[in-house]
Amino acid sequence: MSSSWPLVFVVALVAGAALFGVGTALVRSSEPRAITWTRAILGDDTPVGDDERRDMLERLRLIDAPWAREALALAETEERRR
């Protein structure tokens, strides 16, 4: 019986590593995805809050131009994923 402790140690180590991997994957999958559609409007990666993004979307809907329609399509896709 005394020679089975290395096996128990290895099993515990593998189980701990597996739990760590699953936990890390769960945390990363629950993080909000980055919003990139605002870059097309602002030209940089300036952080934009929820209210500002809603205002930008409302204003984009008023513009009848190809670039605005493209930005709206991207925005709808990204905002749905959040």
List the helices and strands and how they pair.
Blueprint lengths: L4 H26 L6 H6 L7 H13 L3 H16 L1
Terminal-residue CA separation: 53 Å
Number of helices: 4
Radius of gyration of CA atoms, rounded to a whole number: 23 Å
Mean pLDDT: 84
Number of DSSP E strands:
0
Q: Which series of helices and strands comes N to C?
A: HHHH
The proportion of residues in beta strands is under 5%
Oligomer: single chain
Main sheet overview: none
Helix content: over 70%
The outline comes out as rod-shaped
Give a description of the structure.
- This protein is an all-alpha fold.
- Helix content is 74%, strand content 0%.
- It has four helices and no strands.
- The protein is rod-shaped.
Quickly list its features.
82 residues, mainly alpha, 4 helices
Report a brief summary of the structure.
This protein is mostly helical and 82 residues long. It has helices spanning 5-30, 37-42, 50-62, 66-81.
